[in-house]
From TrEMBL:
<dbReference type="InterPro" id="IPR029044">
    <property type="entry name" value="Nucleotide-diphossugar_trans"/>
</dbReference>
<dbReference type="InterPro" id="IPR036388">
    <property type="entry name" value="WH-like_DNA-bd_sf"/>
</dbReference>
<feature type="domain" description="MobA-like NTP transferase">
    <location>
        <begin position="93"/>
        <end position="215"/>
    </location>
</feature>
<dbReference type="InterPro" id="IPR052077">
    <property type="entry name" value="CcrZ_PhaseVar_Mediator"/>
</dbReference>
<dbReference type="Pfam" id="PF12804">
    <property type="entry name" value="NTP_transf_3"/>
</dbReference>
<dbReference type="InterPro" id="IPR011009">
    <property type="entry name" value="Kinase-like_dom_sf"/>
</dbReference>
<dbReference type="InterPro" id="IPR036390">
    <property type="entry name" value="WH_DNA-bd_sf"/>
</dbReference>
<dbReference type="InterPro" id="IPR025877">
    <property type="entry name" value="MobA-like_NTP_Trfase"/>
</dbReference>
<dbReference type="Pfam" id="PF01633">
    <property type="entry name" value="Choline_kinase"/>
</dbReference>
<dbReference type="Pfam" id="PF13412">
    <property type="entry name" value="HTH_24"/>
</dbReference>
<protein>
    <submittedName>
        <fullName>Phosphotransferase</fullName>
    </submittedName>
</protein>
<dbReference type="InterPro" id="IPR017190">
    <property type="entry name" value="Bifunc_CCT/choline_kinase"/>
</dbReference>
Length: 617
């Protein structure tokens, strides 16, 4: 039945003593159109009419009543879509951690799970899945959350009314800091990482995570109708059917959040929880759901639940996550190395400052699988890296590459047999200096042309922007130091340096010697055309060469003592890279990594070398 016909039936149903003129006025159309439309409805026995004196009265038949009921039900089930586009990447999260569990001594989110705090685990999961900023709402024993205030990506706000309020008050406390779509996570929820990743990548921007019933005794049951959330309740008697249980983790768009705040503005019930306001909104707007039936998860509200989590749920979750990780690796290997479904292999994690690296043993051969680390997609051009790494492989400087996905950065390469990775101490041995100097000379004199140019001054501006986007802060005297570094730019550019293919990250751990004594240079993420003295300077810095050790290395590289202008070039490059990598460290730490004093040490060394250079020039 058409919308206009339903409108006529609805008007007649609400007021039987009505004429065609009244119906036309209430429906917002002309009397002529009503006359034209009402006769077929009478003929089809949706409406009866009866003359009373000079007037005509209209009544709905049983057929008309049933049609109106079905039509209105259909209209009610059609929610408004408040978004112009569907999927949008989520960069922000809100964690609700204000509440008190009377049977627990401390906030549930601070529960210890085999040596790791639940909230710390959840924060790590968020960051691994692209979340850049987190708002954490505290209340009960707020002083115990100070450890999180040291993380620059986390903003802590307080709900000082937590004793007398529901979760919507806590969510409203975070409103000032919510600037976009966000993931909402209740702090007492333990869940496998797969579920978070799946929810963040779900196409619907307003989406509630649900699972099968847990049997915990405190379930928030869910009923779904026409693909939308229809009811949320803890009273099982209110539901026609049970489609699952709400976990306590949702993806909420900024538009939906503003509507929740509007609904909440005139609220007089401080105990209201956010999920019931979500349900109110869902009566008018599309609110989707993601159901993961077999998700491993648990809520920690009582000592009994905590005991169950520690002894049963968390061990099962860790086993499932390990198996999931292995399955992901298996999928990569299947694509890269044509791995059969049943073919056995072993994986073993090892090393990596930026990425996750795994040693894979398959068919009696060993491979290195690299999976890029957190947020590296903004800092590294994988297409350029793939091109440049192929050059290094063709030159015999690095091992053969079997697979390289320039979109994800995942790479599979041949493992160096009986590998010995250099460190700052072993790199100083003369035999190793000879091998590394010879390898760098081979690269720099190869005449190969890499895909890109590594321009340190462009990189400084790029990293400054990334730091700002990560809400990070730089050192207190950064502006003054930056100005001094930029004054060196004119001096450096006047040297008219010829660019060559360079690695640009020649720390000793990127040099690996095989059992046969052959040296390799790995990890070409920062490679590009550059001053070859950048590589020399970087190696000297990272190995902490003494002046005498640097002199020896230069003699091995050049085959003769280095000229004074070369030494000036090297000192300039030392300043530039210490300054650049100190910003890089600030970015990584703003994203949640911890590099100790690495960043400030490099920054201070750049300042010390600036003083030395001023004395020289």
């Amino acid at each position: 039945m058409k919308q206009e016909e339903l409108s006529i039936l609805n008007v007649i149903n609400n007021k039987t003593d009505v004429n065609q003129k009244d119906i036309a006025k209430m429906c917002g159309v002309s009397v002529g159109k009503i006359n034209y439309m009402i006769n077929p409805l009478i003929e089809q026995k949706y409406i009866n009419r009866k003359r009373v004196g000079k007037s005509t009265r209209y009544y709905l038949t049983e057929k008309g009543i049933e049609s109106l009921k079905q039509g209105l039900s259909s209209l009610q089930d059609n929610r408004v879509n408040i978004h112009h586009r569907s999927f949008k990447p989520i960069k922000q999260a809100v964690i609700l951690a204000a509440g008190q569990r009377k049977e627990l001594q401390n906030p549930a989110g601070l529960a210890d799970l085999d040596g790791q705090v639940l909230l710390e685990r959840n924060v790590e999961i968020l960051k691994r899945n692209g979340i850049e900023t987190i708002v954490m709402v505290t209340g009960y024993k707020k002083e115990l959350f100070t450890r999180f205030s040291e993380d620059e990506s986390i903003t802590i706000v307080e709900n000082d009314q937590y004793k007398w309020t529901g979760t919507m008050i806590s969510l409203a406390c975070a409103a000032k800091y919510i600037t976009d779509d966000f993931l909402l996570w209740e702090s007492d929820i333990l869940i496998e990482e797969y579920a978070i990743s799946k929810l963040l990548n779900h196409e619907e921007r307003d989406c509630v995570l649900i699972t099968n019933e847990s049997g915990s005794g405190d379930e928030a049951f869910v009923e779904i109708r026409n693909g939308n959330l229809y009811k949320i309740t803890k009273d099982i008697h209110q539901l026609n059917k049970i489609d699952g249980e709400m976990v306590g983790i949702s993806k909420i768009s900024y538009n939906m959040f503003k509507r929740l705040l509007t609904e909440f503005k005139d609220n007089r019930n401080p105990y209201v929880n956010y999920e019931y306001l979500l349900l109110d909104a869902a009566r008018h707007y599309k609110l989707g759901y993601l159901k993961i039936p077999d998700a491993v998860w648990a809520e920690i509200d009582t000592p009994q639940q905590y005991h169950n989590v520690v002894n049963f749920v968390y061990p099962r979750l860790k086993r499932k996550e390990a198996e999931y990780q292995k399955q992901q690796i298996k999928e990569i290997l299947r694509e890269a190395l044509q791995l059969n479904e049943e073919e056995p292999f072993t994986i073993e994690p090892f090393g990596g400052m930026t990425n996750k690296n795994y040693k894979v043993t398959l068919r009696n051969k060993e491979y290195v699988l690299r999976i890029p680390g957190n947020c590296t997609e903004n800092m590294i051009n994988r297409y350029e890296e793939k091109f440049n790494a192929r050059i290094a492989s063709d030159l015999g400087i690095d091992t053969p590459i079997f697979y390289f996905n320039e979109h994800t950065g995942v790479k599979v390469a041949e493992m160096i047999p009986d590998a010995e990775t250099l460190n700052a101490k072993s790199a100083k041995r003369q035999e190793h200096m000879h091998l590394t100097a010879e390898l760098l000379r081979t690269l720099h004199t190869s005449q190969a042309v890499m895909k890109n140019r590594f321009d340190v001054f462009e990189k400084i501006e790029e990293y400054e922007l990334l730091l700002k986007q990560a809400n990070g802060e730089n050192f207190s005297d950064y502006k003054e130091t930056r100005a001094a570094v930029m004054r060196m730019k004119d001096i450096y550019e006047a040297l008219d340096v010829t660019l060559t293919p360079c690695h640009n990250d020649t720390l000793p751990e990127n040099f690996v010697k095989s059992g046969s004594g052959r040296m390799y240079l790995i990890d070409w993420e920062y490679s590009g055309m550059n001053d070859p003295m950048w590589d020399v300077a970087a190696h000297s810095l990272e190995c902490n060469f003494s002046p005498e050790e640097e002199e020896l290395f230069l003699q091995l590289y050049f085959g003769q003592p280095a000229e004074e202008k070369i030494k000036t070039r090297i000192l300039l490059n030392k300043i530039f890279q210490d300054f650049l990598w100190s910003i890089w460290t600030q970015i990584k730490e703003a994203q949640g990594d911890d590099f100790g004093t690495y960043g400030i040490d490099r920054y201070n060394r750049a300042k010390a070398n600036l003083t030395q250079l001023f004395e020289r020039v």
